[in-house]
Amino acid sequence: MALNPLVSEPEAQARSLAWWKKTKQDAQTLNDWLCDQYRGEATAAERILLLADHYTRAGSRERRLLTRIAEQESKHARWVAELLRARRLPVPAELDFARERYWKKTLPYISDLASGAAVGAHAERMRLWRIQAIAADVQAPADVQAVFARILPEERFHERAFRSLAGEAALH
Questions:
Q1: Which long-range contacts (CB under 8 A, 24 or more apart) does 98-107 make?
Q2: What integer is the mean pLDDT of 21-43?
Q3: Are 71 and 46 in contact (CB under 8 A)?
Q4: pLDDT, average across residues 44-70
Q5: How far apart are CA 92 and CA 74, in angstroms?
Q6: Nearest Cα to 15, choosing from 155, 149, 132, 120?
Q7: pTM for this structure?
């Protein structure tokens, strides 16, 4: 089931492939996106821990699952930061939550664990399409492809975990 009924999964995947083809051809666009990806991974970890703090009990299965996801998102941020440094690019020092269009639109609708997990599932799904496009591209810059191939399995896990925490009603 696609999380966004307005965009089919094949259409979203095609859009991601077209985005990647365009992005990888322009060094500045790619570097800007890598910086944004770093911010996204780092802020995801913070958001997930806030979700856990607000809507789960200490020691609960849900808290353990969210903590595991947040730890993995922090690890992904470190991997992307290493990639940026290897490319001699600055690692963004500022993590500006307000810059992110998706979060400005969705955060007001989070009122419980299920709604927060549904927002997380959708965010992970959108990210997955792009990461899959990069990881599958044998003509991608090798350093970028390698990092995102490492991230991909854990991002798949995150999307499934958020979907399970959300439940069908919240996903709709």
A1: 99/39, 100/39, 100/40, 100/43, 102/126, 103/43, 103/47
A2: 94
A3: no
A4: 96
A5: 14
A6: 132
A7: 0.89
Residue 14 burial (CB count, 10 A): 13
pLDDT level of residue 10 (50, 70, 90 thresholds): confident
Q: What angle do CA 158, 46, 85 make, to 5 degrees?
A: 90
145, 137 Cβ separation under 8 angstroms: yes
d(CA 172, CA 144): 34
pLDDT at position 158 over 50: yes
Tokens of 65: 């699952």
Amino acid letter at 105? K
Nearest Cα neighbor of 166 from 3, 39, 29 is 3
Residue 107 DSSP one-character state: G
Quote the tokens at residue 34. Answer: 């890598």
Is the model's pLDDT at 8 over the cut of 90?
A: no
pLDDT of residue 98: 47
What are phi and psi for residue 104, nearest 5 degrees? -60, -35
- Residue whose C-alpha is closest to residue 110's, from 100, 101, 120: 120
Q: What is the mean pLDDT of residues 151-171?
A: 96
Residue given tokens 């996801």 in the structure block: 69
Q: Tell me the C-alpha distance between 118 and 164, whole Å.
A: 9
